[in-house]
Design brief:
The structure is a homodimer of 422-residue chains. Chain A has 14 helices and 13 strands. By secondary structure, chain A is of the alpha/beta class. Chain A has an eight-stranded mixed beta sheet with strand order 2-9-8-7-6-3-4-5, with helices on both faces. The first copy, chain A, has a three-stranded antiparallel beta sheet with strand order 10-11-13, with helices on one face. Chain A has a two-stranded parallel ribbon with strand order 1-12. The mean pLDDT of chain A is 96.
Chain lengths: 422, 422
């Protein structure tokens, strides 16, 4: 349906009915949350074997003491396999890849990379594909780094724009990327986009791609997306120092209690370690070893992820089905992505309505990610994008969440159109 | 014995015999290590119950997901009891208190404290009681912070010097302290020293005491040292924002896989969290909860530490007995501390000999902490101080370590005296 093509009278009638429907739903006193990309308890339970297995006696003694700054060899090798890197290119850290990203940006600010001037010394910029991950933008904003929006296409960020900035502006030092099952759009960068990122000329020698491969094994369908190996391509072009890759087991084992890693050239890793050696004696190797014993192999990780998929794919489907049912057939007030993996559905509503949808959802008992959060500085100029995180809510709560979301989108957008017709 | 009072002939005779003895020991091919304050495997085993207990089903669901930036309430309360703070003054982090210290200094450098200018903006200084902890000095050196040596007395740092610097030089922003069973001297700050630190006037509003209470429950005798509660005293003087306290369970449960904490005023903690919230979604709450279940109470921690003491106190005794036997009776080439807790014995040898002792030890198969490491920039101008870490070596290896150490001290010091008599 094209709501914009309705007459004022038709729209007013529909709007009045929609307002009643929304108010009935709001009166039900629901309390549901689809705001953050958090695994649900059933997913966490799949990792309980890791917590309960008697294993201390089997641990190598070296895991039970200080040292081993770069992580245990077993986990370096496993992450290397997952990411298509050499074990010598992998650093295994603590529980949080976000922490590794923040610390990496902080090292750029404080010390600089590869002999270049510390980023603190002058005004620098990061490119931010939008919509994107709010916590990435939070880090760069916190350090006072200017953020430049880059629109996302179906196959990744608009590369003409990216190349132009990176080739000509030496103050552009980085780009945030979630290249597979992107947060929040769910798209995966095409081979061409990955190649252009890895090979494009850069005005700044210390330009870095923050490659947050958070959803590297997080498929939701039988036709998983294939992400090209950016490190392999970068190496051929002599650009391997450009890549800072990140991943973690947070959404494989336990959110907040997993193991995170960084992948980078041996030269970059050596430089990182030259700072990290002052920061800590080493990350939690017991947790690293616990993970190694539990995860074992890439194949076993695939099995775990298949079981997770059984739990969460129906939740994605329920939301997408409801969106299709209500806004299908080329509807002009809502469009959305159908991700083949990852943790999010990206929902675009009629321009100028996203904040109002958020307000209506909240008033009816549904927490969603703040409108604007998927943009640097929280500013979605078109006020269109909403991020939907289906995983955390229980299946029994999901119908309520969907009911509120659909009713709020309809009410907000119809109200806006009706106003415009005044 | 006073070696300096021997005639040249007497000394030459002793030296020749000592050289033969050293060479015989060196020829035995020992390989032992008393370099780092690492717990031994028997100590680690005391915590295996923590790793093996089936417990996941008992975990609160909130521990099994993201969030809870300030740490789980149970561990905040337990650390608060240990340190004499309010739970609201305790932040529970990851596996490393050193990491919390580094990050705190980094926040001072990047963002500044309490509205003051970031430390990066001008040349700043830290006071460093010496001998002290090499990794503290490593952090400040890495950030280019000028370090000023403050001699340690029996009851803590020379407070006349400290007060003079802090009152008059606004570029003095911090002091490193290990107030209980100090690394490496083993002394505990007296009530007077703690009071003077907490109440002294400071030229810099953002002067901070880095209070590394690493050995708060690490007693080795029946007469444990009592450390005054610096936060209580600071509060009375209105100086509570001056204190950054740190501790961890690394030497209670597992080195490198424990839980670390920071204690600070609620105002400071709020400021710290305003930055940490961009750094991570939260530290490993599963490990925090695992620790809570295992440690339970201050009384139970005391029991664990008593069992650790049974393992390590004999190692301290063996070394101290050997030192007394060889260098007792007011000997002029070696003096040492007899710590009532902590992880170190501080050994002072004849000036100008510490590096040579280190070289001889190494050549005979004994690794000890590099001479000079206990001083900022690795520079012990008197070349006197050596740090002995008795815990890690097995009891069966300890006699070899002692044999090499004693022979090396004697040979180095006698050689030096003999040279001086040429």
């Amino acid at each position: 349906m094209k709501y914009a093509e309705l007459t004022k009278e038709q729209l007013d009638t529909l709007l009045a009915a929609q307002r009643r429907e929304y108010e009935e739903i709001a009166a039900k006193g629901y309390k549901v949350d689809i705001a953050r990309g958090k695994p649900c308890f059933e997913q966490a339970k799949l990792a309980f074997g890791m917590l309960d297995a008697p294993m201390a006696e089997d641990f190598p003694k070296s895991s039970l003491n200080y040292g081993g700054l770069e992580g245990i060899p077993e986990m370096r090798a496993l992450f290397a396999q997952i990411l298509g890197l050499e074990p010598s290119e992998v650093f295994v850290g603590g529980n949080s890849s976000l922490n590794l990203m923040y610390d990496t940006v902080q090292r750029g600010m404080q010390f600089g990379f590869d002999g270049c001037e510390p980023w603190n010394r002058s005004a620098i910029k990061f490119l931010c594909p939008v919509p994107g991950y709010d916590r990435h933008f939070g880090i760069t904003e916190h350090f006072g780094i200017e953020m430049i929006n880059i629109p996302m296409n179906e196959d990744g960020p608009n590369m003409d724009l990216v190349e132009n900035y990176v080739a000509n502006d030496p103050s552009v030092k980085g780009i945030w990327c979630v290249p597979k099952y992107s947060n929040p759009t769910g798209i995966t960068y095409s081979d061409e986009v990955v190649t252009r990122l890895a090979t494009m000329p850069a005005a700044a020698k210390d330009f870095r791609i923050f490659w947050d491969n958070a959803y590297c094994v997080h498929d939701l369908t039988d036709t998983p997306a294939k992400l090209a190996n950016i490190m392999t391509i970068a190496k051929k072009a002599g650009n391997e120092d450009r890549i800072f890759e990140f991943a973690s087991t947070s959404k494989i084992t336990l959110a907040g209690a997993g193991v995170a890693c960084m992948g980078m050239s041996e030269k970059n890793l050596k430089e990182a370690l030259s700072h990290i050696t002052f920061q800590t004696i080493g990350y939690d190797k017991v947790n690293q070893y616990r993970h190694y014993v539990f995860l074992r192999s890439v194949d076993h990780i695939k099995e775990i992820m298949d079981r997770q998929r059984e739990i969460i794919a129906p939740k994605f489907k329920a939301i997408i089905d409801a969106l299709a049912q209500n806004f299908g057939d080329d509807c002009d007030i809502a469009s959305w992505t159908e991700p083949r993996g990852g943790y999010f559905i990206s929902l675009d509503v009629l321009g100028g309505c996203a904040k109002e949808v958020g307000r209506l959802c909240k008033a009816a008992g549904l927490t969603i990610t703040s409108a604007g959060a998927t943009y640097p500085y929280g500013k979605d100029d078109a006020d269109r994008n909403l991020r939907i995180a289906p995983t955390f809510t229980s299946e029994s709560d999901l119908p309520a969440a969907i009911e509120i979301l659909i009713a709020s989108v309809k009410l907000a957008c119809m109200s806006k159109l009706a106003e415009e017709k005044e």
